[in-house]
Amino acid sequence: MKTxxxxxxxxxxxxxxxxxxxxxxxxxxxxxxxxIDEQYAAHRIDVAAEQALLxxxxxxxxxxxxxxxxxxxxxxxxMDDVFTRNYVVANHAxxxxxxxxxxxxxxxxxxxxxxxxxxxxxxxxxRPFEAFANKAGMTYLKPFxxxxxxxxxxxxxxxxLVDYLQYLSAKMPxxxxxxxxxxxxxxxxxxxxxxxxxxxxxxxxxxxIKNQQDQxxxxxxxxxxxxxxxx
Length: 231
Prior knowledge:
By secondary structure, the chain is of the alpha/beta class. It is 54% helix and 13% strand. Strands 1, 2, 3, 4, 5 and 6 form a six-stranded parallel sheet that branches. It starts with a strand and ends with a helix. Pfam families: Flavodoxin_2.
């Protein structure tokens, strides 16, 4: 899985949230971090080069803080410049790729729910991106929302790290089985770099997880057989 993270943030270096996410993604093989604002600040963006770059990735992540219920202007500018109709519709350049949204907000997520103070859900507010994915023939992923990062404790941040890396690289939909498969793959990569004694210990953990996966599949099969017999 090759993933590009297109970050739209006017002050990425001053953002604790983005710093955390950038450090997290750096440990992930196949992930590329690209700051849109820096591209525009350095020079007029090379549309052809950006289009060629995007073709080489399986998953495109648009990552940004919420600005008035949408994205920062730099992301809109990037989409207008790079995602031309010829590129997206005529040439189907993004077809069958995944499109994910990583959204950071300063309010509680509960505010963006039925009956909440904001009156609209995150999914509703992100519908323009979903519409774009549909037009481009992409698979739209449920937005990954990070709310009030500054108030999270260390345990919450550790959980966020794992969830974020899975959103970037795990097979979708993010079912329990796909989460476990992703975890096994990451542990196997870690084991390869460990001393032999530590490898053995970690391999035992990996085998335990794999056995649990097999047991779960057997259980699913048995349930299906019972249902088929009842019908």
